Request: fold
Amino acid sequence: MPSLKDLKNRIESVKSTRKITKAMQMVAAAKLRRAQEAAEDSRPYAKRFNAVMAGLAASVGGSESAPKLLRGTGSDQVQLLVVMTAERGLCGGFNSNIAKLARQKAEELKAAGKTVKVLTVGKKGRDALKRDLGDDFIGHVDLSDVKRIGYANAQTIAKDILTRFDAGEFDVATIFFSEFVNVVTQIPTAQQIIPASFEATEGESTGAVYDYEPGEEQILADLLPRGVATQIFSGLLENGASEQGARMSAMDNATRNAGDMIDKLTIEFNRSRQAVITNELIEIISGAEAL
Amino acid sequence: MAQTMQFDLVSPERSLASLQASAVQIPGAEGDMTAMPQHAPTITTLRPGVLKVESPEGNADYLVTGGFAEIAGDSLSVLAERAIPMAEMTRDQMNALIEEAREMYKTAKEEDQPHGLVEDAAKLLADMEALGTHMSL
Reply:
């Protein structure tokens, strides 16, 4: 049975924990709104970009001279997994869900006899995968100093990946990130970026025959690297929103749990206080009777 | 004949403009061109330059640093890598952009990158410098 003093201390410490988690939840809520706006602002670009690329890819894709980024290297032996996670923890299952998906995929690929290489973006993903896939790491991108993710960050990552692709380090690249659905739901997603695949969007292709300036293939060669950057950028933004959403609900849970804990401890505290008083009374009464 | 067309200017980070325009001058990779309503469907890449928009409500200029434009008869979408309204542009910003291009050219040359990246960077630098003089801020 803990003493009254102990109980009091515990209640105090849980109370301050609750204050912290409450503050973190509110910060996450504010950041979530911004992250969501950023994700929404980037959508028109990505949508149009995909529409144009789908059209271009459809008209050039089949030919032998199509760029490698679109056609692939003709093999899928070496697979690059780009695992994008957060720089910070305390956001529920967000980081571990992405890591789990990546680990699963890596195991599948390895079982099929492929070579797996891993590029991590975000510290938490690297920590989570270090034990199982540590030997396959080929690089890490640190975004911990970045306050607000910009297109330039995505371009840097894309450039790194493209340089490796040009050097023939891998055949297929897949990015892993968490798609933001709402505050309680984030879906870990794998998306292949090299060779590029563009879903033909509904009704976007007006059927018009475009003039291309310069030639179709030149435009395609110019745009494909940008497509990689754009996809990484939307992945990063989705991730940003997901992270804050996950943190918000995790901290909401923690705040509620702390509240329950405080209630329980307070009841225990009151009971033992009463027990002490009763005890004292009994002692006094029995002392008086003994006289 | 339609007098205006839907004009959209979007960058990866946000949408900058969406309005009805009567003519838009585009700094295409192979030379400037002006798109007006009912222009033949065209897709062109951009070089760094000034995008001039004429609309019934007035004219607006934007500085773009590359990307592409999609002209489709009654609409025009410009997807710029970076776009800055001319009114907000300052000499310092221009210098920063030129400096960035120069830096890129330098690293490209040093690392001996493939794919004509060196020429691309050189062209970018030249375009940027020309633009800086042209703007005469």
